Amino acid sequence: VQLQASGGGSVQAGDSLRLSCAVSGRISSNYGMAWFRQAPGKEREFVAAIGWSGGSTHHADSVKGRFTISRDNAKNTVYLQMNVLKPEDTAVYYCAADRTWSGRGVAFRRAYDYWGQGTLVTVSS
Known about the structure:
The structure is a single chain. The protein is mainly beta. It has strands spanning 2-6, 9-12, 17-24, 32-38, 45-50, 57-59, 67-72, 77-82, 91-98, 114-115, 119-124. Strands 2, 4, 5, 6, 9, 10 and 11 form a seven-stranded mixed β-sheet that branches. It is globular and about 40 Å long.
């Protein structure tokens, strides 16, 4: 199983970016996906998560109303649409997959079995 994150870049505050995470290999029949981020000198933190059908989504309070997680199972890809970016959103963004999605504990790193390599998002003021 491999997770390939892409779409990061350098933008100005207020701009938008869309991150993608392509999954190759078989995980399970109903795996969940998530995005985490890690800013320099800080712990990796939860950003958003989504269940297999896309009907169950979770977003961290810090990104609610600005970021939206979605997925296209036909393409084995999960997305993170990021709008109204702020300098404090600067971080390396990682995608992750949970083989046994339950919708509980989605904000905890230990819930996820597979991780991508990360893509850097830099937001300047």
